Amino acid sequence: MYALHGSILALHIFGVVFWLGGLLMIASLLARVPEEVGLPKERFLGVARGLFEATTNVGAAVTIGLGFVLILMNPGVLRQGWFHLKLVLVAILLFYHVRFYRRIIFLEDHPSESTGREYRVIHGLVSLLLIAILMLAVMRPF
């Protein structure tokens, strides 16, 4: 049973890397969109959308799906305070996930209506959320 739990946990972490790596890459790409004109701008948006669909969505699905499996394998975790905070931070990540998708769709129709600063700030926030989630999961402070 321990080997199964370890394997699922490893795949869950792999999903997190895929998901958050994709979000960070998309933030970096979208931060460059306002600086570009014409075809390069369209290419950045196309790459961002492809990355979102191929990597970020898959990573989020794997992370969340295997997270539910891990909870089913150890339901006692639902009574731990650190886990509640972790779930709140994951909910915030889901908010940014949906926001990125909506921004990509919007920018495909209105490529001039964005600022690089917005995405650099989001990149920083996603990075901080990643660090906070990892610290909670590893240290389990309360």
Report on this model:
The protein has 142 residues and is mainly alpha-helical. It has one domain. It has helices at 2-32, 39-73, 81-109, 116-139. Helix 1 (2-32) packs parallel to helix 3. The protein is elongated and about 55 Å long. 23% of the residues are buried. The mean pLDDT is 91.
- Structural class, by secondary structure, is mainly alpha
- Taken in chain order, the helices and strands follow as HHHH
Number of structurally distinct domains: 1
Work out the helix count: 4
Give the low-pLDDT segments: none
How many angstroms separate the termini? 26 Å
- Beta-strand content estimate: under 5%
Say how many strands there are.
0
**Radius of gyration using CA atoms only:** 17 Å
Shape field:
elongated
Largest sheet data: none
Summed over residues and divided by their number, the pLDDT gives a mean of 91
Overall helicity: over 70%
Q: Quick gist of this model?
A:
The protein is built from 4 helices and no strands.
